[in-house]
Amino acid sequence: MSRRKKREIRSLLPDPKYNSTQVSKFINYVMRRGKKSTSQKIVYDAFAIIEKRAERKGLDVFLNAIENVSPFLEVRSRRIGGANYQIPFPVEGERKFTLASRWIIGVARNKKGKAMSEKLASELIAASKKQGDAIKKREDTHAMAEANKAFAHFARFAR
Asked: Which of 61, 90, 93, 154 has the fewest beta carbons under 10 Å from its own?
């Protein structure tokens, strides 16, 4: 029994070019200050760069990258008996996509010297090959969860 209100799940229109709700959601994550047309241009240019470099469809590389970066476990901090524990939890459903997207975009934004579409393209290609900083972030998350699996028995109290 939760005290929180259930969040309202709003439907999202698929993007016009690839007719994919995942791409549409990714474009929204890239967006800053409400500039959707700019974020669409960045993502579509990144997909075009991917098609030139990787000789595969941009959408296929994107979906493969998201799948590779998506974590299975994460740690959540819980206060139990006056101490804070990092408790490993399985990552479910929509949160996998959200975390993977956030990590890929964050890595691309932190790189210097190139256009955002080029940085995003290179990170998506690397992630689809199971390389790059976003994959490293996923591995670090899994390592943290593995290191704290001794506290997994607290998970049933902490939902």
From this structure: 93
E strands along the chain, which residues?
73-80, 83-90
The model's pTM:
0.86
Q: Which residues contact 123 (CB under 8 A, 6 or more apart)?
A: 65, 104, 107, 108, 111, 132, 133, 134
Domains and CATH numbers, the chain: 21-154 (1.10.455.10)
Cα 125 from Cα 47, distance rounded (Å):
10
pLDDT tens sequence across 17-56: 899 999 999 999 999 999 999 999 999 999 999 999 878 8
Terminal Cα distance for the chain, rounded: 10
Half-sphere exposure of 55 (CA within 13 A, CB side): 0
Q: Which two tokens stand for residue 78?
A: 């819980």
Evaluate whether 113 touches 82 at the Cβ level (below 8 Å): no
Kindly state the tokens that stand for 52: 């030139």
